[in-house]
């Protein structure tokens, strides 16, 4: 009761000696150069150091410093050091266990900084050594020792048997997950005009708590308020929720002048994940630009800052700690991870207010936050220790979606699939080629459709080849393209980079009276050039007017999807921003992206290319996990590096995408691997030049019409990596479950064939469960040996195996199911290699691949172990359309299963095409090649009443143009008949 009472009151560190125990009020300062040097360590001059000297070369060398204290106990050591880059020093008192201390860069080799640690000393003489036999150490100036005040611990429970132990006497905290200490001696700090640290300078620390209900649920908000010592008030805040195993923390600085450029709610030199068989630290990039890669570094070599989230894990046990920001509207956040020079513990420091030109692309430091306000708050940080680091990262992804809900409208339609012109056509794009691509998808690959029975056909950069006069020119060709897509049942897409200026010269900005130079983002007064383009200030009214102008053009043209690119340009730190109150790149990003989404007004699927990995989750439906990959196995490996370590982003985005899937002239194996990389990531955007002939067309007709493969992405979710110890290379093995089916993808990125033995338990499957196995590329069933606990797959060089495992074997093993057009009939052939209680096959047909109806039955063989061939002929397929077929296999007990869906098109020469359709004016009628001679065109109402009749003795280019504006709004039938009585019909919608 006494401790609880004290913990909830404001107490003065030096005024509670009777309650807290005796606290000697003294400290001593010791110059390190007074010690004994060894192994090449040497004294160096340093004007900013005390005594103008320091000790260097402490990687290969060491220094031993004698210290005398009156009482045995734990002491706070404040170490003064200088280093140009982050380095670790080992502090060893009296040849005991060394204390590794990672020292962040101090600002240069002659600039001194300080860091605190704890050492245990004996009464009387002590010898403290400083060295780093595992790497390079910082230069050391001096250290100060003061007895550590008696701890006063406030316990903050969370999760199951987890707690934070906050030491009110010393301003640090330990974190226990399921009664295991993982984080020790963590502190908070804030960088304003001075540096404020939770563990130094404050004389009073108070604990309070109150219920809280926010987006994460109902829980408790725990607040440690630090004051005194002539410092600005600091508050350390912890959020806990009964239903969550993680906790969240933030730090605030309060009072006049509390604005900050960097804040850290958690910095610890003593993180121990308690599992070290294959200890890894994960680097997560800020964006997907410049072919950046994720990297799972070995812990002993880790010394880097990861973007927004940092993960320390053991790949063998899979236990791991995840620390990351879940708020991105104000701060860029880095998670500094260091294991270099350590054997077990790690250094972890959250850095809200972090920039790095090679990672965040910034060319200046982070902007100040809360300028002119009375309080400055860091982002909220998730801290989670998971039994499986992969699950922990998925929880982190979900937490981001909770903390910052989508600004873009929720996507309820099917997983997007389609084509993008940048894959192969690129700068050669024109209207003719764009239409030829549409025709290829409409006529040659009718099964390649998403669950909504459509595809997106997206014009990328160089769409302005179709707008003579540029952005202010003639958009009629784009409108024609969009209408042509829709006439074929497809959806048109467009591309734009809204926050860049490729011209880089001053001129009037489209849609406004501003000049481009007024809108350029500037650093040190100069335009900021990234990726060959000047960044535009996303808060400037000229940038906004340009966005509104062009988005309205796209909407008027009829586009239903937009791919937006080079978004990281909008997040760059700048000298200043146009909009008042905006001081950081992420604040500017929020302004620009919200304005862009407002202009789109729910009219399009929004798809991001180069963009911030995590902060973009609010604004788009779909995002590329990597960028600018095309066809070969090396590019498949590059995209799958991002999927291996970034798959969890599908918790924030409706879909993540593996970039262009281009088959080109690569080997069949590389084509399969490229396609599989998209399926593993969760969507499929192709990119070949389907306006010209080549082997890629044949490959596409085969690979893109394999319904077993296409069904994998129905849920739009990525596969999980099995291992996380591949450095900056991709994993070879991925797994995903859908219902009672499990999919295993095994990639061979090498130049030689390779055999893979897959431990089913390691993959996450029931090793004792009998499974039916099917190779989805070949369609063949494989011998099942899964009850042995593993399967072995041989994968050719630069290839992939994609296997489906079903938890219960099907009673009938189907192979070689095919359907082909024979004159004006459809012939279906299939075989079985085994049958158990097979009653019959019901043949079903559909015109939309959704609503199927039975058209015939073939009796089954009951039970058989022999190969049996079956055949059925559909003598009345619907002509001028695509007919879809499937087999419904029915057992004697009435249970059933479906085959894959097959498509047979009867419209190659016979279809009647109308576009645009719907229309309220001009209409083009494409005349089928089977209609000859004089033609009679008739438009009738639904009751058969003619409303328009015309005759044509000849037509140019097999096209007829008419104007349907005089017709009333409604649905009509348009018929075209030749002199021989051949007749074709199509539905016409007048809007």
Please give the CATH architecture of the largest domain: Distorted Sandwich
Indicate the CATH class of the largest domain: Mainly Beta
Query: Which fold name corresponds to the CATH topology of the largest domain?
Result: Beta-galactosidase, Chain A, domain 5
Q: Summarize the main sheet.
A: 10 strands, antiparallel
Structural class: mainly beta
Overall spatial form: globular
Q: Count of helical segments? A: 13
Overview features:
mainly beta, Jelly Rolls, Beta-galactosidase, Chain A, domain 5, TIM Barrel, 6 domains, 65 strands
Overview of the structural elements:
The chain has about 1000 residues and is mainly beta. The chain folds into 6 domains: about 25-145, Jelly Rolls; about 155-405, Beta-galactosidase, Chain A, domain 5, CATH 2.70.98.10; about 415-625, TIM Barrel (Alpha-Beta Barrel), CATH 3.20.20.70; about 720-805, Golgi alpha-mannosidase II (Immunoglobulin-like, Sandwich), CATH 2.60.40; about 810-905, Immunoglobulin-like, CATH 2.60.40.10; about 915-990, Sandwich (Immunoglobulin-like), CATH 2.60.40. It has 13 helices and 65 strands. The strands form 13 sheets. Strands 17, 18, 19, 20, 22, 23, 25, 26, 29 and 30 form a 10-stranded antiparallel β-sheet that branches. A hairpin with a 4-residue loop joins strand 56 and strand 57 (about 895-900). The longest helix is centred in the middle third of the chain and has 17 residues, at about 540-555. It is globular and about 115 Å long.
